[in-house]
Specification:
Layout lengths: L2 H10 L1 H14 L12 H11 L3 H16 L3 H12 L7 H17 L2 E17 L3 E6 L3 E2 L2 E2 L11 E7 L4 H7 L7 E3 L21 H6 L4 E5 L26 E4 L1 H12 L5 E5 L2 E17 L4 E11 L11 H20 L6 E8 L7 H9 L2 H5 L1 E6 L6 E7 L4 H14 L6 E4 L12 H5 L4 E3 L1 E3 L4 H4 L12 H20 L11 H14 L6
Parallel strand pairs: 5-6, 6-7, 7-8, 11-12, 11-13, 13-16, 14-15
Antiparallel strand pairs: 1-10, 2-3, 2-9, 4-8, 5-9, 10-12, 14-17
Length: 522
């Protein structure tokens, strides 16, 4: 049967399918499991509704049962968040996470489990436990960060706090007290990154402050979220010439507490202990890959993925960006392996690194693909927008029939959490996540659109990205939906239709993506 005949038959059966759904919902909760499918008549109706073979139907029902009733996404996420923690690209933690994830895939019985080395960085950066506080005139613990690959302190650095001088008279007044002191830079609200820029070489007195031996500079976020990013030129670091200038970024309320005391003429003492360590490279970086081989078209592929790297600011566990997407990918693999799924196409699971620094792992992966390999990737599914439930796939018009067919079992399994398609004029992106490099070369890449009660940006790159933000019921839905959708696409009669991109437009899009991913992304 061709895909066009499947879609036509699917459309003509809408009314009886809706009736079946209403009847079923009277007897079954949002997690029907296999108990809902004991009657042969029910199975026949579902086979018609999903437009699949009997064997495919049994696999889909088993996926729903396993995903809803024995889901382990939260187990994976707790280990990633609490046992490993934040996972900066090139760090010891992300390397540990790569190997742990490979071990999980191997324990599920997946094949071709390996680490794909996509590049090196000159220096490893690891952040140990870090602390910051006001010592006097009152004690106050700070919530703060420091850029990855930036200088730390040599143990706790306690010193008097001074406002950054803006005139020669102000500088002269504190010159004799600058050694070991901390400098508070005046705040500027509304900076687009949420952080006032760090050391600025154009500041008139900055070289003199450094020469006087200050402990470091304190700057403020625009609000009470402190967002971690990277030091400049991190990929050009030289282990024999590491950065020495210390900068701490505090939340706005901590800045206000210090600044108001200084304004009142009080002597303020602060202390920071920034435990930053560096290791000489080159440090190899990896994407972790595993597969369930296709039984009919093993050289054709559906990719399920998420990035395993995170930012590593103090307080963060890397939970919602992107421990959730990583755990959903791992659980998708487990569910499919556990039910003995035999997809016709290979389902490949990839955990990217280097995403936060500009989609480095996924870009390198795409660059290494031959034209033949690119032509045989049907779809790339990326989970990278937090703990909320999977709600939509953005696509072009010609993809809608197949995607709606592929999503039908998910909408049966989770009638209260519908998954839809959202049609756009093109698949072009601005490089928000690891689907972008695939779209840039014409491979259909999808970033799952999410809906739910969690405000994603509260945890995004901040000190709050911790396990308590995770919503278990949403992760159950996302992992089960990912498994169902991947299986359906892997068993479709044809590869997913592609957007036709003119060469001139593609070149312009690649330039746009390169510009958009300079700096930190999801």
């Amino acid at each position: 049967m061709t895909m066009s005949s499947r879609i036509s038959r699917h459309s003509s059966a809408v009314v009886p399918q809706l009736v079946l759904l209403l009847i079923t919902s009277l007897f079954v909760s949002a997690a029907p499991g296999l108990a809902a499918f004991t009657a042969d008549a029910d199975r026949a109706e579902l086979r018609e509704r999903f437009d699949v073979s009997q064997q495919e139907l049994e696999t889909l029902l088993a996926i729903i049962d396993e995903g809803q009733n024995r889901n382990r996404t939260m187990d994976h996420l707790r280990y990633l968040s609490e046992e490993i923690g934040a996972r900066l690209t090139g760090s010891t933690n992300v390397e540990r996470a790569n190997h742990w994830a490979a071990e999980q895939f191997e324990s599920f019985g997946l094949e071709n489990v390996h680490q794909h080395m996509w590049g090196t960085i000159p220096v490893r950066f690891d952040r140990g436990p870090s602390h910051g506080r006001m010592v006097s005139p009152v004690e106050r613990e700070f919530e703060f960060t420091a850029r990855a690959w930036s200088a730390g302190t040599d143990g706790p650095a306690r010193g008097r706090l001074f406002r950054e001088p803006s005139t020669q008279d102000e500088f002269d007044a504190i010159t004799d007290e600058l050694e070991g002191a901390w400098i508070l830079r005046p705040g500027t609200r509304g900076h687009r990154r949420g952080v006032v820029p760090g050391f600025d070489e154009t500041r008139e007195f900055l070289p003199d402050l450094r020469a006087a031996g200050i402990a470091g500079l304190i700057i403020t976020s625009r609000d009470d979220l402190v967002r971690t990013s990277r030091a400049r030129d991190w990929r050009e670091l030289d282990y024999d010439n590491l950065p020495t200038d210390v900068t701490a970024i505090v939340r706005r309320s901590d800045y206000d507490a210090m600044n108001s005391r200084l304004h009142d003429g009080e002597e303020v003492i602060v202390e920071f202990d920034l435990n930053h360590s560096f290791e000489a490279g080159p440090i190899e970086n990896y994407n972790t890959i595993a597969e369930i081989p296709g039984s009919v078209w093993p050289d054709e592929v559906v990719i399920v993925s998420g990035h395993i790297d995170t930012w590593d600011g103090p307080g963060s566990q890397g939970t919602t960006d992107n421990g959730t997407g990583t755990s959903v990918t791992i659980e998708t693999a487990r569910i499919l392996a556990e039910v003995g799924a035999e997809p016709k196409r290979t389902i490949r699971f990839i955990l990217w690194t280097g995403e936060e620094q500009g989609l480095l792992g996924s870009r390198a992966y795409v660059d290494e693909l031959s034209e033949e390999e690119r032509a045989k990737i049907s779809a790339v599914l990326v989970d990278d927008t937090g703990t909320n439930r999977q709600a939509a796939l953005q696509c072009v018009e010609q993809m809608v029939p197949m995607l709606e067919w592929a999503l039908e079992p998910s909408n049966y399994a989770f009638p209260d959490m519908p998954v839809t398609t959202r049609v756009s004029e093109s698949m072009r992106t601005r490089g928000a996540s690891d689907h972008a490099p695939f779209n840039a070369v014409g491979i259909p890449g999808f970033l799952w659109r999410k809906e739910g009660r969690v405000e994603y940006r509260y945890g995004w790159h901040t000190q709050h990205d911790r396990i308590d933000l995770a919503v278990p019921e949403y992760l159950v839905q996302s992992s089960t939906v990912s498994a169902l959708t991947a299986f359906m696409l892997a068993n479709a009669d044809e590869l997913l239709p592609r957007e036709v991109i003119e060469e001139e437009d593609q070149n312009a899009e690649e330039e746009e993506q390169a510009a958009a991913t300079t700096g930190s992304v999801n």
